[in-house]
Protein 1
Amino acid sequence: MDKKALLNELKIDRGDNQVDSARPIKWLLAIAILGGLGFVGWYVDFPLQPAAALEVRTILAQTPTRTSSENSVLDATGYVIARRMATVSSKVTGKVMDVLIEEGMVVEEGQILARLDDSINRAQLALAESQVASANAAIAELEVQIRQAELNLTRSRDLAVRNLVSQADLDSDRLSVEALVARLNKFRRDIEVAERTTAIQQQFLEDMLIRAPFAGVVIAKAAQPGEMISPVAAGGGFTATGICTIVDMESLEVEVDVNEAYINRVYSSQPATITLNAYPDDPYAAEVIAIIPAANRNQATVRVRIGFLERDERVLPEMGVKVSFMEAGVANEPAIEVPVGVLIPESAIASEDGSLFVWVVQGQQVSRRAVEVSDKIGSRVLIVAGLRNGERVVSNLNEELLLSLADGLPVNILN
């Protein structure tokens, strides 16, 4: 072959390669443009999206208490107890079909808490009602027989007057009537027995519905559908002895053990203050209900019952408390003047340009509100204007949290 032709075959044609190499660059430019447009769209739309709820901690604004521990003659520790607390169970052993309560639920007196299997009780009630119906039908038949016997007796008497019937026949007809009347009275007694049996079966059926003995709050749920329940322990570990535990929150009080060497400082109706260990800055006004007339020889203490004069939802059973007994005669002295306003922690107050304000939580949103401060009591501040008792404010304010808060901002309360 010609050498020139061979060299031409080895020559590289760059025309097609330039076109192919330009295509990736064009695709990269298109992708970059689309990505930029998407970022701009996202940046523009992002501020319009609803803001996530800010997590905050809050505290209730409360009026100052009426007493002060400065006059305390004795301090003691104890626990909040409920005078009315019951573990609700059934009267008989049975299988749980439905449980209608959960922990924390408020129940009313007589409210149905659970249902047991009542299939056998319904069958027994139906049988008792059938016996009543059968006895009534027998009485109706017997009344017809009595009317027939009375007619026979009447005819026999008429015939006996004319000496057409012997005295023996007359006596037989009279005794037949008396026998039927006696049977009628027996059947009526049988109906009474059947009706009372029916009433008992109705009560057995009613006992399959477990009801609340009093109004309160459910603090423990002990049974589930399908379990066996019994008023006494039975069946090893497979039988529960209760449905739930109910506490009457209106019966909460405090019990403390006072050293018998200092019991002379305590008397009935003595004023006192109760401070929960969980809320040491919020004491409650109280008074002594009773001193139990018996001492514990092992601990050398006497038990004292103290009742709340004021209480809120923060007081829970089994909470630890500190009780301060006031000095003798405080109950007869003029009442201590209660400062006007509400108390909140100092950490819940912020300032800007010399003015003080708080963030008030209403529903699930916060709003800024100006307040006036009068005095500092312990670790709390007395607010005399701008805040009412029972309102909830954001606590533990810091610089980062203050920058995040705004009027109408949705919040999620942590406590």
Note: DSSP finds five helices and 25 strands in the chain.
Protein 2
Amino acid sequence: MTMTRYRHKHPVVHVDRRISGGKATRFVERNAAEGLLRVGLEEQWHRDLYHRLLTITWWQFALLSIVVYIAANTIFAGLYLAQPGSIANAQPGFLDAFFFSVETFATLGYGVLAPATVYANVVMTVETLAGIMTVAMTTGLLFARVSHPTARVLFARNAVVSLHNGQRALLVRMGNQRRSQIVQAEVNLTLLRSETTAEGEFMRRFYDLPLARARTPVFAMTYTAIHFIDEQSPFYGMDSQRLTDQEIELLVTVNGVDETLGQLVHARYSYLPDEILFGHRYIDMFGVTDDGRRAIDYRRFHGIEPLKAGAFEGQ
């Protein structure tokens, strides 16, 4: 899809049968910056506020909480100041009204400042209710963010098309970054490819790639998904240029149960054509320390090396 720079709220989009006019575009984004531009979709932030508050970054959540807290107390301080003398023992000015609002909002009640009029008591009642509701919602959101289960699966920066037991195969290396294990882990590889139907309609097709082993009872350290490339495989006869021409994307998903949390966790990753290397292999990570202990060197996790000259071409 060829489009202008995103300078306006509704950019002009020119229809094109290619996704990106030759530039690789990721359909399954790894982060928000990589996602497709959604044009013409009306988004009303207040209708999905809970989801937005769960998906924003931690610094955004902290900043938003601080801004809301200060803004709420500033508003109520202004309401107290609307009637002079509404707060007993308060000095004239904004500061005492603001700090009294903070005490009321948090239901502290130090006893030095107190509402002195019926008007102040009404405002105090409303603020106390607002404070209780705000604290309850913030606590719920904070707990939901902290307790949200994550898989923390590490994916190799590149997928490789290599040889495995003498047969051409697509390999994707994954690693468990936690010391806890993922039990009954299931891995899926899916190929996304641009195609045109007999009627001339452009489509993105999904092809599930069968794996040599798609499930493992325990995903403790590393796992390599292996798809053998035979005549039935969508990767059959492919090379880097053909992958680019068909605007493919390789999607990897992992699902399982975290043994510590006892909850279902999942992770996803995707590879574009320039991230799938032909005629390469992953560097071995397993070794032995000087004192004879077996170890995994995660510094070599992303390491790849070319196959021996001529070993790949004949397959």
Note: The helical segments are 49-55, 58-81, 94-105, 118-147, 240-245.
